[in-house]
Amino acid sequence: MFKNKEEFKPFESKVWLSSPTMHGEELQYVTEAYETNWMSTVGANINEVERIICDKVGCKYAVALSAGTAALHLAMKLAGEKVYGGTQLGQGAFRGNRVFCSDMTFDATVNPVVYECGVPVFIDTETDTWNMDPVALEKAFEIYPEVKVIVVAHLYGVPGKIDEIKAIADRHGAVIVEDAAESFGATYKGKQTGSFGDFNCISFNGNKIITGSAGGMFLTDSLDAANKVRKWSTQSRENASWYQHEELGYNYRMSNVIAGVVRGQLPHLEEHIAQKKAIYERYKEGLKGLPVSMNPFDEKNSEPNYWLSCMIIDKDAMCKQVRGEKEALYISEAGKSCPTEILDAISSINAEGRPIWKPMHMQPIYRMNPFVTRDGNGRARTNAYIAGEALDVGMDIFERGLCLPSDNKMTPEQQDRIIEVIRACFE
Ligand SMILES: *Cc1c(COP(=O)(O)O)cnc(C)c1O
Hints:
Elements: H1 25-35, H2 44-57, E1 61-65, H3 68-84, E2 98-102, H4 111-115, E3 119-123, H5 134-143, E4 149-153, H6 162-171, E5 175-179, E6 187-188, E7 191-192, E8 199-203, E9 216-220, H7 223-232, H8 256-265, H9 269-286, E10 292-294, E11 302-303, E12 310-313, E13 320-323, E14 328-331, H10 339-348, E15 354-355, E16 371-372, H11 378-386, H12 393-400, E17 401-403, H13 412-425
Parallel strand pairs: 2-3, 2-4, 3-16, 4-5, 5-8
Antiparallel strand pairs: 1-9, 6-7, 6-11, 8-9, 10-12, 12-17, 13-14, 15-17
Helix pairs in contact: 1-8, 2-8, 3-7, 9-13, 10-13
The structure holds pyridoxal-5'-phosphate.
Pyridoxal-5'-phosphate (PLP) binds next to helix 3.
């Protein structure tokens, strides 16, 4: 139960969840673009970020786009076309077919499936890395053996169970789209995320590990796919002197100005990861002895980028908490707490936390979509929960977990005060 104390004074300037951190080189590359008049979607900054990122991730081709969502959209289009043949205007690349998707993720992972007229089928989450559960994925193939595309995200910068998921995909001849928007720089068995799927994406949105203020990148080893994305993202112009179009086009290319910001940030990626790792470890140490644990990862096989530090409260240390569609209520109890109380307490000292990304199967927009748990009975479990009985893994993590302030400009002293506030919630 949280009681505010004298020492819990609000920070003078807000401690953010995760905000842009500039270093100076960004301005230099942006100025270069300005002074040489390369202010469009062509230029040295774009070429350089594509080259550097291929090098870093270890993929053959990278195409710089206006957003991670744009990269995912064109990745879905490629995946759909690969499986179902050329796009029919108005029917999308998926033509009404089902696509297996990560469930506990940001909605930009799955919306592009719908842009291409696919039907997302959500796969429940595992407790070891908070990503797509391979056991539930296998179950989903039993129920929907015809599915040929899987969209998999790495939540909060923690690599999922890539080997297991890839083995299942191979066995069923399915294409993988990897959403590494949050995990740029994270590795699994020494390989970078964003290099495991057939068509992959990273994001440079303002809150990610490095940023261009906006922007994203499509990654692949297929020259044909990279060429298609280059063409589609620049309005699908054919090689003619007038505007000639044989395919649907998009205005998705990255600007050379944005690319200047990304180019200036790239040398600082590892530094940002080290800062985020120190934050994660400070929380882990500082929260010892409380009935909570940090978001888990596979310590043997993976190195996260530690983009967001999260914690989850033990079941028996949860006070009563009820969430409606937009508001939450809880009942304070001595020795117990809940995400809503902790987020309120953190916010009372001018710091920003956030609930766990609400799973897609719980979102009103996707209420009619299938959801597969390990026992193959996802929707029945959701309904049982409504009656106050059972939980699926994603819903459970959403209930008990939260994202902690993880800004790499947060000082150790500020973080200590946040930790003290969290401790006070369990008094
Ligand atoms: C941020 C994010 C995206 C979208 O990237 P944008 O660049 O903001 O379009 C996609 N998927 C996940 C998991 C994300 O966190």
